[in-house]
Q: What sequence folds into this?
């Protein structure tokens, strides 16, 4: 059985991708697939998981995937310490990022950039369908395209198929670069190649023990989003404890353009915009409480003077 674990945020389409992948894999006779999500009652932006299982036999195990052949992160802020604990031997991590990772098991794709170039906005889910069709021989690109035609609205067919093609091209470039790097690396430093279905050339099934379940608490000063990416079971009252790592975009106010019209203040659904009592000479008359801001972007849309810009959380942290 091939198991895929998807990490994403509400609204990024992780479950849609998991379902499309299962549909594509099951189009061939004798192939079976199962896809299901795991999320809580939180709103758009909250970390969630989805799972896809592919097999040549009917699938009776409907439990969540603890160790996967492929682990996919639609948001790189969800990738944190201990990520390797979710990976089977020979497995591959695919992450939506432009960062460079030292561990060769992690493959970075600029899924936001690929999807934005085609759709005009960042929706990274179908990028990884294309990537998986290039890596896993259980899923052909023709079946992925057919699944898109069968399960997505007709108006989305052409662009999402174009995204799949662009993702496959990007994966080809990654694989070619790895082959060049591997040819120049010392034998002891050579990394496992990206082969089909998790990079394992063996047909034997390796049964890995499942780790004990862990329910993290949000009552902590540590707000690394990756801490909340592995469970959706939290103590009551979590909404009163900062933003729980839901945000992947951050609003930034340009003091030179802000007029203090308070449209952002009026439209913010979480009440995180507040008036500054005595703003400094070079400061805006309003500010944003980033402990509770979910990064929805409504304030930026409400601003008539374009004084609010949404930037990636990773870029804000690097400043």
A:
């Amino acid at each position: 059985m091939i198991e895929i674990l998807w990490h994403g945020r509400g609204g990024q389409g992780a479950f849609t991708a998991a379902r499309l992948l299962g549909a594509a894999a099951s189009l061939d006779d004798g192939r079976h697939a199962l896809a299901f999500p795991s999320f809580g009652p939180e709103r758009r932006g909250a970390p969630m998981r989805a799972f896809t299982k592919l097999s040549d036999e009917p699938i009776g195990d409907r439990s969540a995937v603890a160790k996967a052949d492929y682990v996919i992160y639609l948001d790189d802020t969800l990738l944190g310490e201990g990520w390797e604990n979710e990976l089977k031997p020979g497995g591959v991590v695919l992450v939506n990022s432009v960062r460079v990772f030292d561990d060769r098991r992690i493959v970075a794709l600029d899924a936001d950039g690929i999807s934005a170039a085609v759709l005009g906005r960042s929706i990274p889910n179908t990028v990884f369908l294309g990537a998986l069709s290039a890596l896993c021989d259980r899923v052909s690109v023709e079946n992925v395209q057919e699944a898109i035609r069968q399960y997505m609205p007709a108006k989305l067919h052409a662009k999402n198929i174009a995204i799949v093609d662009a993702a496959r091209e990007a994966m080809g470039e990654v694989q070619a670069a790895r082959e060049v790097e591997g040819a120049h690396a010392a034998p002891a430093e050579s990394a496992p190649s990206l082969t089909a279905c998790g990079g394992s050339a063996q047909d034997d099934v390796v049964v890995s023990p499942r780790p004990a379940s862990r329910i993290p608490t949000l009552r902590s000063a540590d707000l690394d989003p990756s801490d909340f990416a592995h469970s959706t079971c939290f103590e009551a009252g979590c909404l009163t404890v900062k933003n729980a790592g839901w945000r992947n975009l951050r609003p930034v106010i340009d003091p030179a353009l802000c007029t203090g019209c308070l449209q952002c203040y009026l439209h913010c659904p979480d009440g995180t915009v507040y008036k500054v009592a005595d703003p400094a000479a070079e400061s805006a008359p309003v500010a944003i409480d980033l402990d509770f801001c979910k990064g929805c972007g409504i304030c930026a849309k409400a601003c008539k003077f374009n004084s609010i810009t949404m930037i990636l959380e990773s870029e804000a942290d690097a400043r």
